[in-house]
Amino acid sequence: MDTLLRVDTAEEGSFLLAVEAQGKPDQDKWSSWTYYLAHLHAKYALPPILLVVCKDKATESWAAEPIRVGVSVHTSMVVFPLVLGPGNVPAVTDPDEAAEDLPLAVFTALAHAKDPVLPAILDALAAAVVNAGDEAGKRWAEFTEIGLGDTRARALWRHLMATYTPRFPGSGTLIEETLIEGEAKGRAEGRAEDILRILDLRGIEVADVDRERITACADLETLGTWFDRAVTAASGQELFADE
Question: pTM of the predicted model, to two decimals?
Fold first, then answer.
């Protein structure tokens, strides 16, 4: 499934929210959704709810149909998806309204992903996320990007959310890419410092031009090679042998 969330409430206890973004009717999903719910209930011993977010009214109507498992004379199981779509979710274009219920504002954006009013919805949601300024806001920011899929709207959202940190590793979002780049830069800087430290401890003088070359390098594989050579090199120049 697209996303699985655990929701803790004050009065009803905890439950699992299985979220699916559905772009078109797909009868194969009926079997998948039935399996998801049965598996989640058995594994976590928490009541699961299937939430299907649709981007058009036709898909919304299709997804809302109960899924019945069994034979004509006896139904063994019935799945009732909770469906959100442009037909039953109002557009939220006011930042203050979006801030009052951030999760609802996020699902509004996903449900209206094909609506001409979407830019206004994303503007309001972006303002609400920025004003929230907490971990929940960051999580919903990336959840929104993932839910928008490979669309122009996602490009707009990536631009708006470029300063946030990731919470969904492996999803390929700009938020994640930004942190990965930062981590890679940090590792490269640390490795460069290690190389220079080794040479210093061994009493090897390093020319300014060589020192600058080491500290400016961002390729971890190259820095790894230089690190190994720094253990035995007789001069700074020997780090760059065969280059």
Answer: 0.61
Residues sharing a CB contact under 8 Å with residue 208, sequence separation 6 or more, in sequence order: none
Per DSSP, the residues of 96-110 read HHHHHTHHHHHHHHH
Answer whether 18's CB lies under 8 Å from 37's CB: yes
- State the pairing for strand pair 82-84/67-71: unpaired
Q: With 0-12 CB in 10 A as exposed, 13-18 as middle and 19+ as buried, what is 27? A: exposed
Give the residue among 167, 100, 90 at the shortest CA–CA distance from 127: 100
* Winning range, highest mean pLDDT, from 41-55, 126-140, 206-220, 221-235: 41-55
**Tokens describing residue 11:** 């009065």
Other CB atoms closer than 10 Å to residue 5's CB: what's the count?
Answer: 14
For residues 91 and 61, the answer to whether their CB atoms sit within 8 Å is no
Longest dimension (CA), the chain: 88
Instruction: Give the C-alpha separation, 92 to 108, whole Å.
Output: 7
Contact yes or no for 130/157 (Cβ under 8 A): no
Q: Do 53 and 147 touch, CB atoms closer than 8 A?
A: yes
Taking CA 82 as the corner, what is the angle to CA 14 and CA 66, rounded to the nearest 5 degrees?
A: 120
| Confidence at residue 1, expressed as pLDDT on a 0 to 100 scale | 75
Long-range CB pairs of 179-187, under 8 A, 24+ apart, other chains included: 184/218, 184/220, 185/218, 187/220
Neighbours of 182 (CB within 10 A): 11
Q: Label residues 36-51 b or e (16+ Cβ within 10 Å = b).
A: bbeebeeeeeeebbbb
